[in-house]
Design a protein that fits this description.
- It contains three helices and no strands.
- By secondary structure, the protein is mostly helical.
- The chain is elongated and about 105 Å long.
- The protein starts with 14 loop residues before the first helix and ends in a 19-residue tail after the last helix.
- The mean pLDDT is about 75.
């Protein structure tokens, strides 16, 4: 109930009006509790969704890794077959390794073709951070 500006004294309040306001307060508290519970449930659901997303990303990463290994094995088998002079008809199925090929030490690995073919003049032009040295263009003037 809306009160008038003239009826502002609490001495005139009847017992029914106080019980009515107590019911309104109780109802508002219940609604606030329900809203808090909904919020808690929504946060829990969000947390679970984030966990599901993380797990899906992990699974996708695993699948990509497995697909890469399978493709490498297939290429290796194809090259070996070409080297042996046998033409594969596509009937053979190559099973990918479940573990990656062991890595070699940095000193044992052959150098890439790109670094070997780069001339000393090009190497000298490179800056310490690996980017080519360029000159910055002057700022453009805007015609008004």
């Amino acid at each position: 109930m809306k009160k008038n500006g003239t009826d502002s004294s609490s001495a005139n309040a009847s017992p029914t009006a106080s019980s009515e306001s107590a019911e309104l307060i109780d109802r508002a508290q219940l609604q606030a509790d329900v809203a808090r519970q909904r919020l808690r449930l929504a946060k829990d659901e969000l947390r679970r969704a984030r966990k599901r997303l993380k797990e899906a990303k992990r699974e996708a990463k695993r699948s990509r890794k497995y697909a890469t290994l399978a493709r490498k094995d297939w290429k290796r088998a194809r090259r070996q077959a070409e080297k042996d002079g046998v033409k594969q008809t596509g009937g053979d199925v190559v099973v990918a390794r479940t573990t990656p090929k062991p890595k070699t030490r940095a000193g044992d690995a052959p150098r890439s073709r790109r670094t070997a073919s780069r001339s000393p003049a090009k190497r000298a032009r490179r800056t310490s951070k690996g980017k080519t040295a360029t000159t910055k263009a002057p700022p453009r003037k805007v015609a008004r």
